[in-house]
Amino acid sequence: MMKNKLNVVWWVIGLLFFAFFPKIFGIYYTNVMVTLAIFSVFALSVNMLLGYTGLLSFGQAMFFGFGGYGTALALTHIPGIGVLPAIGLGVLAAVVLALILSPLVVRVSGTAFAMLHLAFGQLMYVLALKLYNITGGEDGIANFPVPGLFTESLKSSPEHFYYLAMVILGISTWLMWYVTKTPFGQIQVGIRDNAKRIDYLGYRVPQSKAVIYVLSAFFAGVAGSIYGLFHNLVSADGSLGIGMSFAPIISVMIGGVGSFFGPILGVAIFQLVDELILRYTESTELVMGVILIVVVMFMPTGFVGLYRMLRQKISARRTPEAKKEKA
Amino acid sequence: MNILETKDLKHSFGPLAVLFGVDLQIEEGERHAVIGPNGAGKTTLFNTITGTYHPTSGKVFFKGKDITGYKPHKLARIGIGRSFQITSTFMNLTAFQNIRLAILSKDGVRFNLLRRVDKMQRITQETDEMLKRINLYEDRNTPASALSYGKSRALEISMALATNPELVLLDEFAAGMSKEETADAVALIRKLTEGKTVVIIEHDMDVVFSLADRITVLHYGKILATGKPEEIRNNQAVKDAYLGDLEV
Amino acid sequence: MDPMVSMYISQGIHGIAYGMILFLIASGLNIIFGMMGILNMAHTAFFMLAAYFCYVVVGITGNFWLGLVFAPLFTAVLGVVMERVFLRKAVGHMGELILTMGISFVIVAAIKKIWGTESLPLQMPEILSGMVNIVGVSYPVYRLFVIGLALVILVFMMLLLYRTRLGKIVRAAVSDRDMVNALGININMVFMFVFGVGTWMAGLAGVAIAPILTVFPGLADQVGMDAFIVVVTGGFGSLAGAFIVSIIFGLLSSYGVQFVSQFAPVLMVVFMAIVLAFRPNGLFGVKE
């Protein structure tokens, strides 16, 4: 009971924080927050595959990109479409792509899964560049209308956009968290640990993978769609490039694979490091590369793992000492 | 009636033949041991029955139905469970979560994305009951990787039984156990498999003769003899090939 | 000869030459994968690095042949260093994939920093430039040279794998690593050697392609992606698979450019998708 009340208090504090964020911190940090939220949802979608099912994809950007292009195209070509249906269409595009790929990709795992996605991701990138009439080629699709729910346009009111984005991204985060708590989520963890045994317990491994794959694409699509709206631009390099597939992997690695909230921490750290280092060098590639190397070599379980390990060490040190003192 | 039957079951790995036509017959409700020297093909026999491998030729029948080549998940659903010689639990999950995965499958909760699993009281209750029956309740929240060897073996066996199969195949459940652990495991199996059909692969002859109603001796991929423990003990061919060395 | 036919033939030679280069890269990847279970994501970065090394060597000495000899060697040394210093610390296949990807990013960034993003021309030696006329069709000599070079390497690899004790160990390790360990062979030395040879082959491919495509930082992406697709399609660790698929891809790409121009890259991915739909582990792949 006490715990429940405490939970409610935390929820209220959290909601108030996000509700008054733009008023307190001003427009610059409001936009930073939207960026963080977008990449959190994107990283969580990667972690859904990587952390909860053990599938490493080098092409998650294609779902992110499909979400963005779908929404941008809908807003460009369908007169009077609302912002929510446009987001819906973007997400639908990502889901349809995942459904098409799922029979193929769920039959492989490990290295082949990663490489297959690298190839498909690159294919989508090339197509986005070449199908100029649809995608606008290198320039991408820009300056499409961004209608608000209650206002004509969100373009000049970042505060309104913040609320729209945060509600959608917040719900997405909650949904992804909820999935991990369902029986289905438990089965996914089982697949990551020991797919063979899951099979022998009577679960269909490929079908489970297919479902999680499509769910992951759904949330990557949400993130991509909001990202496109946020920048009012969707382009091959911005939404489909190989860097966009690796940014969420890096965040997940920094935060800690498999812990639910680790990737969010990872996104914050990665964005911060990126921001700081880019003041000294132009090269995002260098930043990403160095972070990947350092994380894999020195903290393979990420910050969450580091924290757990430290906590364990401290409690382990305490117990024998306590015993000694008694003796 | 035979609950499980194999007809002329053969299996080879490339040029290397391991099973040369096995006709195994398991009666409903019995505890049946498959014994034989190393390399006799016991585990391969299990693997071809339970869908790890598709047999090169021959048939497998469960309750009269042809189940040759069924995938493991399908076998689990029609009531065939198995445990592994090398412990194959979910190492990063707790004992409770391990058993719960089996209970969820038993109750047919597979693709449920709507309810929280920790709010499903019946599942939690059944899982806890199972943990109590197998004396792992105190280790409820211990990760499988941190369990003692005896306990992790108990978990291994219990996962196969927690799905409540009609027929369960246990591959060397006592492998690597101490005398006491083995005795505990035998008692556990007796308790958990009441009314079920059990097929075990086992090297420990004490376990075999105390647990099995009937015994099949496998020798170089063929059945040498099948019968009650007494018959096997007195079978000259078996003595010559195998038991003689063990001084039963 | 009919100009159409002669065009088809010379296009075919182009395709085979490109296929051979893909094969050099892909087989380097494959022997490393087969031996160590590591898919080296930095492989194509090394491939590109070799092209730059060759550019430097040629810049200093003016001699392409010295570049051909030394650039792949420098690259192999770097590959070995990477294996010893970094790769040993990675945990699991996922760690290895991500670590090598990180190294690849760093190499590409370093290349851009040092040499810029411009396309750098690399002059091929006099003797290899120009055309040669065989039964009425004229071929570019350099492409024939590339094909010949790749065949020589192929033969060299076969001899190494099937005629030497080291080759025996490598082949044994591919099928059963524990056994080789049990035989008391210093597997770490073997790993190092294999990694070196694999990277050396990537380096050779980089040097070979440099005079054709020029030297630029997109080289790894453009050619490397094709090589990765070759490995996936042919089956991880399979040299035969890599050879066949490389040739098919080379031809697809050269004829593809002819008929569907800019959508040629799409053809390969489609081919890969079709193959994997029927054989999820690739044409010659065995289950992981």
Radius of gyration of chain B using CA atoms only: 18 Å
Spatial extent as radius of gyration of chain A? 21 Å
Shape of chain B: globular
The chain-level structural class of chain A is mainly alpha
**Could you name the ranges of chain B where pLDDT drops below 50 across 5 or more consecutive residues?**
none
> Biggest sheet of chain A, strands in spatial order?
1-2
**Number of helices, counting only DSSP H or I runs of 4 residues or more of chain B:** 9
Percent of residues in β-strands of chain A: under 5%
Largest sheet of chain A: 2 strands, antiparallel
* CA distance, first residue to last residue of chain B: 31 Å
Strand content of chain B: 15-25%
Q: Can you count the helices of chain A?
A: 13
Please state the second-level CATH architecture of the domain at 2-90 and 163-246 in chain B: 3-Layer(aba) Sandwich
Number of strands of chain B: 11
CATH topology of chain A: ABC transporter involved in vitamin B12 uptake, BtuC
Q: Largest beta sheet of chain B: what is the strand line-up? A: 7-8-9-4-10-11
Roughly what percent helix of chain B?
A: 25-40%
- Supply the number of structural domains of chain A: 1
Oligomer: heterotrimer
CATH-defined topology of the domain at 2-90 and 163-246 in chain B:
Rossmann fold
Which spans of chain A of ≥5 residues are poorly predicted at pLDDT below 50?
Answer: 321-327
Characteristic key phrases:
heterotrimer, A: 327 residues, mainly alpha, ABC transporter involved in vitamin B12 uptake, BtuC, two-stranded antiparallel ribbon, 13 helices, 2 strands, 79% helix, disordered C terminus, C: 288 residues, two-stranded antiparallel sheet, globular
Q: What would you say about this model in short?
A:
The complex is a heterotrimer of chains A (327), B (248) and C (288). Chain A is mainly alpha-helical. Chain A is built from 13 helices and two strands, in the order H-H-H-H-H-E-H-H-H-E-H-H-H-H-H.
Give a description of the structure:
- The complex is a heterotrimer of chains A (327), B (248) and C (288).
- Chain A has a single domain (31-326), classed as ABC transporter involved in vitamin B12 uptake, BtuC (Orthogonal Bundle), CATH 1.10.3470.
- Chain A has 13 helices and two strands.
- Chain A has helices spanning 2-50, 61-77, 83-105, 110-130, 132-135, 158-181, 183-200, 205-231, 236-240, 242-255, 262-277, 284-298, 302-326; strands spanning 141-142, 233-234.
- In chain A, helix 1 packs across helix 10.
- By secondary structure, chain B is of the alpha/beta class.
- Chain B contains nine helices and eleven strands.
- Chain B has helices at residues 42-49, 72-78, 95-106, 121-133, 149-162, 179-192, 205-211, 229-234, 236-246, and strands spanning 2-13, 16-22, 25-27, 31-35, 57-62, 65-66, 80-83, 167-171, 197-201, 214-219, 222-227.
- Chain B is globular and about 55 Å long.
- Chain C has eleven helices and two strands.
- Chain C has a two-stranded antiparallel ribbon.
- Chain A binds chain C through residues 50, 56, 58, 103-104, 107-112, 114-116, 118-120, 122-123, 126-127, 130, 242, 246, 249, 253, 283, 285-286, 288-293, 295-298, 300, and chain C through 33, 39, 86, 89-91, 93-95, 97-99, 101-110, 112-113, 221, 225, 228-229, 231-232, 236, 262-263, 265-266, 269, 272-273, 276-277, 280-282, 285, 288.
